[in-house]
Specification:
mainly alpha; 201 residues; 8 helices
Length: 201
């Protein structure tokens, strides 16, 4: 498995002769595209057709719970199975500054794949597939720039599945009570924007 991991990395990893525009594109994808996660979460909570707001907020909470569970699982796995990044062992070429901490599983991969899986399971399949493509681009970019192994991204996907499963089970226990507590808090904090019609009540 380690040999396959290294072979795939060397196949994807950029070199000093790689086009500058592709390195710049990969850097943008690796660093900035992950911002789609908080932006979509905020947008789905604040706006939308009145008849869909409740279902959107359920999606936001279930997705947020899945992300918390997935990142917690990711941290535990990282502590149990520490793995150095490619540049930390002198393999390949690094084009993105990064601390030489443990790489498995990828936090970026865990976040975007959990988000994509949540949309597949609890929103619409097509929206989740689009996010999965975005996740694939982020995974490629971070391998291409030399800061992650392919298996780091596969690990993020698997942890994302576990996070969604944990969220689904937890929702049955306390999800609706959590939503009932957050809605009044939101209405109190956003009273002015709600009254002016800038956000949904």
């Amino acid at each position: 498995m380690d040999a396959l991991n290294r072979s795939l990395f060397m196949l994807i990893n950029a070199t000093p002769t790689s086009p500058a525009w592709l390195l710049q594109l990969a850097t943008f994808i690796a660093k900035d595209v992950i911002a789609i996660v908080p932006l979509l979460i905020v947008a789905l909570w604040l706006w939308g057709p009145r008849e869909q707001v409740e279902s959107q907020r359920v999606l936001v909470l279930k997705t947020g719970m899945a992300l918390l569970y997935a990142l917690a699982i990711s941290w535990c796995v990282g502590q149990l199975l520490p793995h150095p990044r490619p540049f930390a062992i002198g393999l390949g070429h690094q084009f993105l500054p990064h601390a030489p901490d443990d790489s498995y599983p990828s936090d970026h991969g865990t976040t975007i794949f959990t988000f994509a899986l949540a949309f597949i399971f609890w929103h619409r399949v097509w929206s989740g597939i689009i996010l999965m493509v975005v996740g694939g681009a982020i995974a490629w970019s971070r391998i291409y720039l030399g800061v992650h192994w392919p298996m780091d991204m596969l690990g993020g996907l698997l942890v994302g599945m576990l996070g969604c499963l944990a969220s689904h089970l937890a929702w049955q226990i306390y999800g609706h009570r959590l939503l009932d507590k957050l809605n009044p808090l939101y209405r109190a904090l956003f009273a002015v924007p709600i009254r002016k019609g800038w956000t949904q009540s």
